[in-house]
């Protein structure tokens, strides 16, 4: 567990917003910020709901169970592509198939609105055989999402072309979210023409993220989502410190200034987009 102190809370947003991709359990384990406290801190800053995202069977089960008890939370369940490759490498194909079957069962629980994060990660998984296993797992998750009319949440790291190739070859679900969008304006256009939503993390605030900002400028407001991916990718001015949903206002405010739109207007649009992307609503005061 980190010994780094949590950042101070930002000012409350002028309208409510939703963090469409966070990891509440990992945030608890990384910074010591309990799940209930994390959600309360977020609400105090205007972040009234989250999608809690699983990366393996245990974290997916925890997210699904939380979504069944807390109205502020919806869940996404999946094997992260790197986890799928690790299961295969350590325990073989049967173990991977069993884990995917467990994910499929979790989609039946109330509060589960998405299958994700799934996709391809060529940054950490470089072996061609393991990458092929990632693609097999990705295709299986696409089918689970389609069969259950759930949103598909994509993890894409250094694999833009192959992500689109797999999606184009599959019978994909109606709703697709590109989590932690990391492409340039050209890749954004290719995703947008397919009807995907693009989710922007705190990385967009980093000084080195010029191409990502160009993508954000090219993204229509009605296709833009915002996320923390906590406990990772903490936005400026707290880069390097633990992230959590209550810090989402920094990214939202940055995007409003970048897009030259009213902050409250962007907040309301993000809520509308998130509820459309996940075909669900959040109770709000």
Arrangement of strands in the largest sheet: 1-2-3-4-5-6-7-8
- Strand-pairing-aware structural class: alpha/beta
- Approximately how much helix is present in the residues? 40-55%
Total domains, how many? 1
Q: What form results from the Cα inertia axes?
A: globular
How many strands in all? Answer: 8
Classify the beta-strand content into a percent band: 15-25%
- The CATH homologous superfamily is termed Metal-dependent hydrolases
The CATH topology is TIM Barrel
Number of helices: 11
- In N-to-C order, the SSE pattern is EHHEHEHHEHEHEHEHEHH
Mean pLDDT: 96
Contiguous low-pLDDT stretches (5 residues minimum) are: none
Architecture overview:
The chain has an 8-stranded parallel β-sheet. It is globular and about 50 Å long. The chain is α/β, with parallel strands linked by helices and 285 residues long. α3 (57-67) packs parallel to α5 and α4 crosses α6. It is built from 11 helices and 8 strands. It has helices spanning 24-31, 35-44, 57-67, 81-91, 93-106, 128-147, 160-169, 185-192, 210-218, 248-259, 263-277; strands at 17-22, 47-53, 73-77, 112-121, 151-157, 176-178, 197-200, 224-226. Helices cover 45% and strands 16% of the residues.
């Amino acid at each position: 567990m980190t010994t780094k102190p949590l950042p101070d809370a930002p000012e409350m947003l002028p309208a409510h917003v939703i963090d469409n991709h966070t990891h509440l359990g990992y945030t608890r384990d990384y910074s010591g910020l309990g799940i209930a406290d994390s959600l309360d801190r977020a609400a105090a800053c205007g972040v009234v709901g989250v999608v809690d995202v699983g990366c393996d069977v245990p974290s997916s089960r925890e997210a699904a169970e939380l979504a069944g008890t807390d109205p502020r939370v919806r869940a996404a369940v999946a094997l992260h592509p790197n986890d799928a490759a690790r299961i295969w490498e350590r325990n073989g194909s049967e173990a991977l198939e069993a884990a995917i079957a467990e994910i499929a069962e979790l989609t039946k629980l109330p509060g589960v609105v998405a299958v994700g994060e799934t996709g391809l990660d060529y940054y950490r998984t470089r072996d061609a055989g393991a990458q092929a296993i990632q693609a097999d797992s990705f295709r299986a998750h696409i089918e689970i999402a389609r069969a259950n009319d759930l949103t598909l949440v994509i993890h894409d790291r250094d694999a833009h072309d192959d992500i689109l190739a797999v999606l184009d070859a599959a019978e994909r679900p109606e709703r697709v979210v590109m989590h932690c969008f990391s492409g340039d304006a050209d890749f954004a256009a290719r995703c947008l023409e397919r009807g995907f939503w693009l989710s922007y993390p705190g990385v967009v605030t980093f000084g080195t993220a010029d191409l990502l900002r160009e993508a954000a400028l090219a993204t229509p407001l009605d296709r833009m989502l915002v996320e923390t991916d906590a406990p990772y990718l903490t936005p400026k001015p707290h880069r390097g410190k633990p992230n959590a949903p209550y810090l989402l206002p920094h990214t939202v405010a940055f995007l409003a200034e970048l897009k030259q739109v009213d902050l409250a207007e962007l907040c309301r649009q993000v809520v509308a987009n998130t509820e459309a992307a996940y075909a669900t609503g959040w109770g709000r005061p």
